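Protein Record: Sequence and Backbone Structure Tokens
======================================================
Scope: a single protein chain, as residues and as a discrete description of its fold.
Tokens: labelled as protein backbone structure tokens, with as many entries as the chain has residues.
Position: the record begins directly beneath this header, with no further notes in between.
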Amino acid sequence: MSRPRASRTVENEIRRLGYVHVAGVDEVGRGCLAGPVVAGAVVLEPDHYVAGIADSKVLIAAERERLFDHITGAAVAWHVSIVEADEIDRINIHRASLKAMREAVMALVPLPGFVIADGFRIPDLPMAQRNIIGGDRRSTAIAAASILAKVTRDRIMAELHAVDPRYGFDKHKGYATRAHLDAVAAFGYSPKHRRTFRPPTLFDTIPD
């Protein structure tokens, strides 16, 4: 069964309106119990096609790693922004995701003239934008951003595992798997856990 590949149709339509640099933006880690939320922003070179770009969720880790290098090597501009767990607890995950996405866009050099984002409208951007539901499946630029964000976040979680292997961050990447919940029940929260994400079913069994 072939995997769905993202298309450049959306970006090409926007370029025909006169926008030279069109950035795709996406985030990963929204639903995790631990670790940061990470956003990627990418402006792809229209004349340099990178084969195989798709929503990061349908790719295996080796494909994402390979595409990370191809995307960063071929992009006009790219950036990844990180919001850590303590700030997620302080401002909530929705605002943290939007903050990471905005910071990723604003760090691009040159700044894009137009931004397309997966799912959400990004506040306080000084350029035109369009939010696209399911954008990581429809737009190559958004799919590329999702790959950069996912690879970066997976690397961070592997580093956290090397520091504290009790939770298995290298396997579940902070998501609420049974093994992760069992580890939290046994050891309590680490400094990298989001304390506002306490699983309600374990409320009485997780030590502080």
Q: What stands out?
A: The longest strand covers residues 22-28. Residues 140-163 form the longest helix (24 residues).
